[in-house]
Every structure is written in structure tokens, then in C-alpha cells.
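Intended use. Records such as the SnoaL-like domain-containing protein entry shown here are meant for training and evaluating sequence-to-structure methods. They are not intended to support clinical decisions.
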Amino acid sequence: MIGRGTAWRRRREARDRSEIWALQVRYAGACDRADLAAIEGCFTPTAQCTYNGDRLSPGRAGVTQYLRSRAALMAEAGTPDFAIHLVANVEVDFHRASAHAWTYGVRYVGRTTDAGQVLETRGLVYDDVLVRHEGAWMVQQRELRALWDTTQPAR
């Protein structure tokens, strides 16, 4: 027989996993829409992040500043026609006041260049420490790594 405390903890953990999954999906969608306010809402005010080896300035503004600079660099290669981030395989370990999540994803960017249409595809892993802040799970630490990428002609 499962005690009341155990059943409560299981329900709480299931709810927390669902909220963390929703956070990762919300971040991916905000990136696709270039919604910087929504992206900031995924991070704590003191978040520490490293994206592809670049240590970002602390806090939410560090993340959006980095994404703005990446968008400017990408625009030099041709304005993206679309961007799609897909996230999957969210693995979560819970600790006393935090959670550690590993999330795998793929980013697709389609663009028209002087040479024609291309599709850029990149495999990603997000290695996150999450905490509850203002009643919601948010990223406190993130290391984003590109695992592979490719560019190919698109039809």
C-alpha cells in the first residue's frame, strides 16, 4: 500500500515534470517567434548561461542580448524565412529545491540566399538547472551545446 505522503510526492513530481516540459516548449516557441519577452520569462533574474561555449552576461538580459547578436549574424547570411525549434527527450532529476533537466532538440532554419533556398539543421542539447521562482519553474543555469549541424539545398 502506498502511503499518503508517497502518493502526494508522486503527483507533485508528475506535475513538476509537466511544468518543466511546458517551460522547454515555451522557450522553443518563443525562439521561433523571436519573442524576447517570452524568452526572458523562462529564466530567473540571476540566470547564468553558456551557449555553445560563450559565457553570457548574467541574468535574463544576458540571454536576450546574446540572441539579438546571433540574430544579427544570421541575418547577414540572408533573412530567415522560418525557424522551428523542436524539443524532445526531456530527462529530469529532482533535488531538494531544484531540478536538473537534459533536453534534446533540433533547430531548423530556412532561408533564401543568393544561391537559392537552404535549410540549416542543428542538433542541440540543453543542460539546465531549474528552480521555482515566483511560483513557476525557471532556468537558473543553462549550458546549450550544438551536437551537429548541416546546411543543404531546400526545395
